[in-house]
Structure formats: structure tokens, C-alpha cells
Give the backbone structure.
Amino acid sequence: MGLQLPADIVASEEVGEQGRTTIYRLPANLTTARPFVALWIIVAFVLYAIPFVFGALAYSFSRHGRVFGPEIALFPICFFGLFLFPLGTLLLMLGLFARWGWYEITLLPQQLKARARLGPLRWTRIVPLAALRGFRVKHGTASASEESEEERAIDRLATLLADCHGGGNVTICWGYAPAWLEQFAAVLTQRCAANLGGKTELPPVTADEQHPGRIRKRSLQPSHSSALVEVSPGRFKVTLPPRGLIRGNNPILLAFGVLWNLMTLPFALIFVPLLLLGQVQWEDGPEKAPPWMALIVVPHVLVGLGFLAYLRHNALRAAVLEVNQGTLSATTGGLWGNQVHCWPLSEIGDVLVTSRRTQSDDSAKWSWWLSIDPKQGSTVSLLHDSDQAELEWIATALREAIGLKHTTNI
């Protein structure tokens, strides 16, 4: 018996040259209830205005000081506009879509198309069914406990992701209730599996709750997990390969580190040699700048190199967990080398998924890791900042391989 779609999804079918096509039109997402949606649009126009304000100030200074010509007004417009115009456009499109846009999901015999539509504008993402690994519903996380129940429900709005082979994922839609998205994802899973004709078995929908109070037993590997599993009699091994530069780093830190080095390193490579050759002079005199001024650049270069090393370490982080010959071994590595831990199975008391709140303000952001708790000695923490669902699966698999009983925290 087929699964039922949520009642407010309009489905239609067409038969064309590519075969049967099913189109699902989703209702407007629930982010329209967020009070800051209007602020996105307001902030977008503020960002648009900032370069012109600085341009007007530069033009005014040039008129009174007569140091530069009127063309100096173009410098702040181009410099600040390089960053602020794209950011403002992104916020403007997000705000307009959250208020008036909708999603249209098209299922073809060989691919899945997710279109975000705003009037005549549309943004299409395509997922080949042959590359589809499964669907995942990533839950939002509620903020401060003093919020009203309505505000907390808005904070928990979820995102539907299509996980692909190779570790990537595509956002299908966002801004809907988790249970609603899970019901829709179950229908998509069934229809995609039917279009594949049994060639590939799709796993059930992965519920990625990100909730520290709901650590669950998870027997199936999540669809977004890139871990490699080897199972044989008396042996269980799970390998977590390096995530790479983009997936292994926080996008904000990655962007900041790249921009910092793009500004600092070229300046240092040009300024320091000229300074040492005596080609740099003060603006108001013929005196040459002393060579020791090169020391001013050193801290900035060191910070940039530190950023590059940190980003590279996160990109190379990998881990291997193995139960074999009566022992549990854990090997973690990165840019700074490998670290190995080993325990006899008889001395392991528990394998837990542990969480910690990473921000002290109203935003409820959590980090997760795997804890190996021996009967004697200190607890060892592994796989920091990993995904909760993947950690739950690894903990469940390790418990079964070790022979530990299930508890409320796995």
C-alpha cells in the first residue's frame, strides 16, 4: 500500500517524452511566521546603501581637502560593494522567497528536480536518481527555554536534504515542520525507489534531530554518512575518511581565513621586499621607512598561516574504530599526526554520545562527540564536532560489536 502525501501538497502527473513526470507543489513554508524575515529585506537595502554612503563621504572630503580628485568616491563603492552587494542580494532573495516563494518538486524517471520559485524567478537543483543515497530531514534546534511554544515551534522548522553518493547533499526544501517533511520524504523515497526499478535500495528517511535530550539507538547507517564499514566474524571496523576542505570546516571560518590570506599575503610579498630595498618612503617627506617596520606585517602573516594550518588540519581529519581480537582501538589523525587509543573489551564500561552547548546566548548550538568510558581510568573523547545521527549509529554499532547492553544514552 502506498504512503499518503501531506494533505496540503498538490500533486499532478504528466506523461511526456521522458516518461511519467510527477510534480509536487508545496505550500508556502512556515518561515513567514519568523519576525526577522522582514529584517532580511531591510538589512539588504542597508548593505546596498553602505558603499554609496562611504563614497559620498570620500567625495565630500576630496572637495574640501583637495588631496584627491572626485574619482576617489569610486574606491569605497567598488571596495565595499565587492562584499556587500552580493551579501545584500542574498539576504534580499532569502527574505522575498521566505515571504512569497514556494517549492515545486518534479520527479522524472531518471532524476529529481527541486525548484525554489518566486514569481517568474526560479532556482533549480537536480539530483540524478542513480546518485541518490537517501533522504534526510534535518531538524532545527529550539533556542532559549523562556520562548513561547509558538516561537520554539518556529525554531524547530526542518530542512529536507537529498544525500548523494560521495558525501555531498542537495537541499530539496526548508522551513517546514519535521513530521510533515518526514511524511513527504517517505513518499519521495518510495517513488524514487520505484523509478530505479529495484536496482538500488534506498534506506528509510534519516531523522537528524540534533537534540541533546533524544540520544537514540540507530541501527542503520545515516544516508549522509561517508563512513566505510568492514564486518567479519569477530571483527568490526568503521573508517571515517577525511571530509575535505569545505565539508570539514565551518563555512564562516573558512571564508574568513581565505579572505584574510588573500589580503595579507600579497601585501606582505610586495611591501616587505620593497621596504628592505629602501623603496618605501613616508608620505610627507623624502625619508625612507626603516626596515624594522617589516615587523608590523609579521603578526598578520602568522595569523594567516595559522588559519591555513587549522583549515588544513580539519580537512585531513580522519578516524578508524576497530573491534578485533578482544580489543577496541581508535586511531584519529590529521595534519599533526596520528593518535592511537586501545582498550581490552572487558575494561570498557560504556560507549556514549555526548553533547555540549557551544554558545551562551539565546542560540542553542550544540557540538557532539563520541565518548569511550572505561571501567577504570578517564573517559576518552573522539570525533569532536561530528554529526549526531552518525555518532548515534557508530555508538550503536560499537555497543553491539563489544556486547554492551543498551542504555538510555548510546
